[in-house]
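Hey, can you fold this?
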Amino acid sequence: MPPTPYLVAERHLRPVGKDCLIAFGGNLYSVPARKVRPRQLVEIRATKSQVMLHSTVPDPHGETLLATHARAVGRGARVVEETHWDGLPTGKNRRTTTGEVPVQPRHHQPLGEEARSLQALLNRAAATQVVVGRRPLSVYDELTGTRPFTTHRTPKESS
């Protein structure tokens, strides 16, 4: 027999919710808000009694473990460590990120008449510099062997 018992664990990938909760087995488990972002995939390693949540990419120290929770019994439980929510927006202001860098307000510069026009915006886009071939739509009708839709009949069709 080996000196340590063999650990049997289920392994799954799940996305992180905006509230830093991960759904697994009909329950929700928290992860630290400062270590994840919404929709990030997290690996779940679940044993009979424990749920371990790991990042799919190691941090600068080579660690992947984000959180460890006791496995919930039944369904519909929320297993949350309150400190995991530190840094989440409270909804009392316009902040919507959990990053360390504060969100900078946008500075609106007065724009000239040309900059306000739709054409000026289109001209700044790189896609407008791509040359595209132009042809009449009837070319596609010929390629597919169909006729364009018309509301009147020609004398040849009515006989």
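Oh, and this one too while you're at it.
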Amino acid sequence: MRIHFTANDTDEAQDAIRTLTAAHGQTGVADADVIVVLGGDGTLLETVHKTLKHNKPVYGMNRGSVGFLLNPYRPDNLLDRLQGARAITLYPLKMIAKDKNGRTIEALAFNEVSLLRQSRQAAKIGIALDGVERLPELICDGVLVATPAGSTAYNFSAHGPIIPMSANVLALTPISAFRPRRWRGALLPSHTTVRFEILEAEKRPVSATADYTEMRDVVQVDIAQDNTTPFTILYDSDHMLDERILREQFEP
């Protein structure tokens, strides 16, 4: 099995990549059968972004802090673990954002697309789903759309729901909503297209971020699941992501 190893710059991750490349060698991304990531959740997501065009499965081992999306780090029996790993295919969100100067950018997000106020004043954001206005004005610090894989991250910190991997839904979650006070967000079918319109954009500027890509002073943001760009993450059979997401809902 040809393996491409990549690691973040912490001492733990660098020690791990030296150990594993000495044992298994190092193959270029284009020629590898699998990419092994050593680091945390951010390192894994960054690697997926960088290597998406190569369409290689990614197997992560935790050498970071949280490591929710990764397997435990064990340097022994790596080939056996890779051969016995189970694959999960995920689909990112595609963000199309337009700023006040008419500039447009597109970016993918594997966890979430989030909008955040840029100034001391709360943002005012209108929300439409599949072309139908659902919330004419949300006054808030921000709002986000999260995938099931990302539902345990920023979405959960903002009191959004944890979503089982097989649910085929997205989380639409406000961040510190002021009005309407009782609106806690919504669960959306995964095929839904979400449009955010920034109200009073000059007075209340807002930024939009898709994982690592940020655009400031946005006026309109469209978000939809991108079914043309699947990516595969590998998990040990006793450490499956769907089981851990389910278990997370019962953590004290």
